[in-house]
């Protein structure tokens, strides 16, 4: 019996594979390093709730590291650090390495848009003594999660003369918040019997803005006019200006430690700031690398990567072409030799919903940043499906750098699925694989991730830029 056990243990050690839990394999110093990494990330979350804010905050971080604005046609220097701000919603950072550009570029691509409630173009109305904004939700939200929580209004209103008015209401402790009503349980008998996806129709996601009439006015329009007059006083805008606005309601909460042991972070927007931020800190931490390296912070991933700030835009290849030209390389060669990590989040095993996961293949909390060889749905539809050779190379560089990481599939094949920007980069003949942090309650107004997994993402991206 005991001899059998010994043989089994020996064989398991020699031939078997299992995930590594960060806390089981890390000393106190490593655990402290993971916890110490978290506050910088949490500040990033609080300061950057929309893609526009993420671009602004990321540029400030990059400029501190010596990055300067890039314009097409510019001369590039070895060791030079540049950023390209695409319309304030999409950012490219790159550092020129000492080796020939024909060796390719190391690219980490994350996205900085996240699910939220966008304001429609003709939004303001009054009904039943309340003023509201009509909305159109953005990305894959579960609508029932967005009612009865404090929301903040973020975005820009662009006047016809081009003046850009920045709006942030609901973030300062003294600010008011806005709100989406739900039904009281006492009268929700019919609503409660509906499937979750149908209980809150999209047209019910109206933002409650106020209830007080314009002083001295009465009638069914006085509250609406009061809101308009307040907005006019504060921002100098009129109702017509909503036609050219990007206004979004996002959760007003700040990032907080979650759990009595503070091992987790709860926040809005982990998907995908939890990959965007470590991609940048890893780039900033690898100035010793000889490779030309790039971080892409993309917009519109949550709605299909369309548009001129999404990853389907040709800007990435335009930039690579320009960099190649400036450094005397061959465009096709540079693409063929480039390597990319599509850094986006994945699902995390949750014992409360164990039935949707394949226990052998799902990412586990605290087992490190997760590589998804494929995403998509059904029979691998809509995925890049990274080749085994590239996955093997990633395994090698992670092992050499001692990074704790895991393989992570999203869920049971027939249950659903999801996609990332990986396929939009791979189609340019660039080796690409998904590597990102597992998230609990992805796309919820308040998502949860592990500090250990966050830190291993930083270490993994550093290993990638250096290897
Ligand atoms: Mn994502
Ligand atoms: Mn997402």
Question: What does this entry show, briefly?
Answer:
This protein has 467 residues and is of the alpha/beta class. The chain contains 13 helices and 23 strands.
Model description:
- The protein has helices spanning 2-15, 22-25, 28-47, 51-64, 189-192, 196-199, 222-235, 270-284, 315-326, 331-337, 388-401, 422-426, 451-466; strands at residues 68-69, 81-86, 90-95, 105-111, 116-127, 130-138, 151-158, 164-169, 179-180, 207-210, 245-251, 256-258, 264-267, 292-298, 339-342, 346-347, 369-372, 376-377, 405-407, 417-418, 431-436, 438-439, 447-450.
- Strand 12 (256-258) and strand 13 form a beta hairpin.
- The protein is of the alpha/beta class and 467 residues long.
- It is 31% helix and 24% strand.
- The strands form five sheets. The chain has a nine-stranded mixed sheet, sandwiched between helices.
- The longest helix has 20 residues, at 28-47.
- 44% of the residues are buried.
- The mean pLDDT is 97.
- The two termini are 46 Å apart.
- Residues 111, 271-272, 301, 344-345 line the site of one manganese (II) ion (MN).
């Amino acid at each position: 019996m005991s001899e059998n056990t010994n043989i089994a243990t020996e064989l398991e050690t020699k031939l078997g594979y299992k995930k590594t839990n960060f806390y089981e394999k890390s000393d106190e110093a490593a655990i402290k390093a993971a916890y110490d990494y978290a506050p910088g990330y949490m500040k990033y979350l609080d300061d950057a709730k929309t893609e526009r804010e993420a671009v602004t905050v990321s540029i400030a971080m990059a400029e501190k590291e010596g990055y300067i604005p890039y314009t097409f046609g510019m001369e590039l220097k070895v060791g030079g650090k540049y950023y390209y701000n695409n319309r304030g919603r999409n950012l490219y950072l790159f550092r020129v390495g000492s080796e020939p550009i024909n060796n390719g570029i190391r690219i980490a691509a994350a996205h900085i848009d996240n699910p939220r409630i966008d304001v429609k173009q003709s939004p303001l109305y009054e009904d039943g003594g309340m003023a509201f904004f009509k909305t159109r939700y953005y990305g894959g939200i579960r609508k029932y999660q967005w009612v009865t929580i404090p929301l903040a209004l973020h975005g820009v209103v662009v006047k016809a003369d081009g003046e850009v008015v920045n709006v942030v209401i609901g973030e300062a402790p003294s600010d008011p918040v806005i709100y989406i009503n739900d039904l009281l349980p006492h009268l929700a008998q019919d609503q409660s019997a509906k499937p979750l996806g149908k209980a809150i129709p999209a047209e019910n996601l109206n933002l409650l803005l106020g209830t007080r009439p314009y002083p001295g006015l009465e009638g069914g329009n006085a509250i609406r006019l009061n809101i308009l007059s307040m907005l006019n006083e504060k921002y100098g805008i009129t109702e017509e200006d909503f036609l050219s606005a990007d206004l979004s309601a996002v959760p007003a909460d700040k990032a907080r430690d979650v759990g009595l042991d503070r091992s987790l972070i709860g926040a809005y927007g982990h998907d995908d700031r939890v990959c965007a931020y470590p991609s940048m800190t890893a780039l900033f931490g690898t100035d010793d690398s000889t490779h030309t390296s790039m971080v892409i912070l993309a917009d519109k991933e949550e709605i299909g990567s369309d548009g001129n700030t999404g990853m389907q835009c040709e800007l990435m290849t335009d930039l690579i072409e320009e960099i190649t030209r400036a450094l005397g390389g061959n465009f096709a060669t540079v693409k063929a030799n480039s390597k990319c990590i599509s850094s986006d989040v994945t699902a995390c095993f949750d014992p409360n919903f164990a039935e949707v996961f394949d226990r052998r293949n799902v990412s586990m909390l605290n087992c490190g940043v997760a590589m998804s060889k494929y995403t998509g749905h059904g029979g691998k539809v809509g995925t890049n499906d990274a080749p085994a050779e590239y996955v093997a190379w990633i395994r090698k560089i992670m092992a050499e750098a001692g990074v704790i990481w895991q393989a992570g599939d999203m869920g049971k094949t027939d249950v659903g699925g999801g996609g990332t920007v990986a396929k939009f980069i791979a189609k340019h003949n660039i080796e690409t694989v998904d590597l990102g942090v597992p998230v609990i309650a992805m796309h919820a107004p308040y998502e949860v991730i592990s500090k250990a997994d966050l830190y291993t993402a930083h270490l993994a991206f550093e290993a990638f830029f250096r290897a």
